[in-house]
Structures are given as C-alpha cells and as structure tokens.
Automatic annotation (TrEMBL):
PANTHER family: COP9 SIGNALOSOME COMPLEX SUBUNIT 7/DENDRITIC CELL PROTEIN GA17 (PTHR15350), EUKARYOTIC TRANSLATION INITIATION FACTOR 3 SUBUNIT M (PTHR15350:SF2)
Alphabetical keyword list: Initiation factor, Protein biosynthesis
Region (Disordered): 125-147
Pfam families from the UniProt entry: eIF3m_C_helix (PF18005), PCI (PF01399)
Source species of the chain: Cryomyces minteri
Cross-referenced InterPro entries: COPS7/eIF3m, eIF3m_C_helix, PCI_dom
Gene Ontology BP term (one): cytoplasmic translational initiation
Entry's Gene Ontology cellular component terms: eukaryotic translation initiation factor 3 complex
UniProt keyword Protein biosynthesis present: yes
Protein family according to the UniProt entry: Belongs to the CSN7/EIF3M family. CSN7 subfamily.
GO molecular function ontology, one term from the record: translation initiation factor activity
Protein name according to UniProt: Eukaryotic translation initiation factor 3 subunit M
Entry keyword annotation includes Protein biosynthesis: yes
Length: 147
C-alpha cells in the first residue's frame, strides 16, 4: 500500500474511533472531526461520507448545526469499557421488553375476560330466549382463549 492509502485508512479509523467515543451525546461537531483528522473543515463531510461507505459508522450529517449525529459506530479496539456499554444497553433493552411483555399479558387477559363475558351473556340470552340448556362447547371456549 502506498502512503496515501495508509493515510486514508488511518483517518477513517480515527473518525470511527472518535465516533465510538462520543458516549451518550452521539454527536460530533465538524470542528472536532476536522481537528482530529487534521483536515480543512470544508472536507469534513467528504470524510464522514467515506467512513459511512466503509461501514465503520452509521449516522446523519446536519449541515445546519455543523454536526455529525452518530447512530452506530464500530470500535477500533473492543475493551472492557465497550463490554460495559454493551451490558448497559442490553439491560435497558431487557427492561423495555419486560414492560412490553407486561402490557401484552395484561391485554391478553383483558381480551380473554371480555370474550368469556360475551360467552356468558350469549349463554344467558340463549337460556332465557327459548334455547334452554344450550351451552357453547368446550372446543368453542378454547378457541376464544387461543385467540
């Protein structure tokens, strides 16, 4: 590889590293990128597009605020700090899923209760409306619970 290609790769990796190190802000000002890559501010967007094309970072450029908003970044070195961040994100994800599961269970129980109430009302109408003795079969009730 020639010097220019090596220089380009180092800049891409540097940009990926600073994107990964943004922490919770997930935002990089153009000026910080220009300083880290030792490039003119006018070239920042070109380098950000290159690092996105290389698959090292995903994000969005904001020309209005002169910032790069990072959605995902690849770490140059995956060390203990990165494992902690992964664990933290997984914990947040897990707690969100626990909440979703609770809502789904609650809605399922409400649905089953509603269907059982409808069956009871239908049963009482049929018993009072000349169809005494008619009771929906077990199979029909199980079908309601399965829904």
């Amino acid at each position: 590889l020639d010097g220019a290609a090596l220089n380009r790769k180092m800049r891409l990796l540097t940009l990926a590293s600073i994107a990964a190190s943004t922490g919770q802000t997930r935002s990089l000002p153009y000026s910080a990128i220009a300083r880290a890559l030792q490039i003119p501010a006018a070239d920042v967007e070109m380098w950000v597009i290159d690092v996105i094309r290389a698959g090292l970072v995903e994000g969005k450029l904001s020309q209005q605020t002169q910032t790069f908003l990072i959605h995902r970044s690849t770490y140059r070195v995956f060390a203990e700090n990165q494992w902690r961040e992964v664990a933290s994100r997984l914990d947040m994800w897990r707690s969100s899923l626990v909440g979703v599961l609770a809502v789904v269970r609650q809605e399922k129980e409400a649905f089953i209760a509603q269907k059982e109430q409808e069956l009871r009302e239908l049963d009482s109408k049929m018993n009072g409306g000349g169809m005494a003795g008619y009771r929906p079969g077990r199979q029909q009730r199980n079908a309601v619970e399965a829904e």
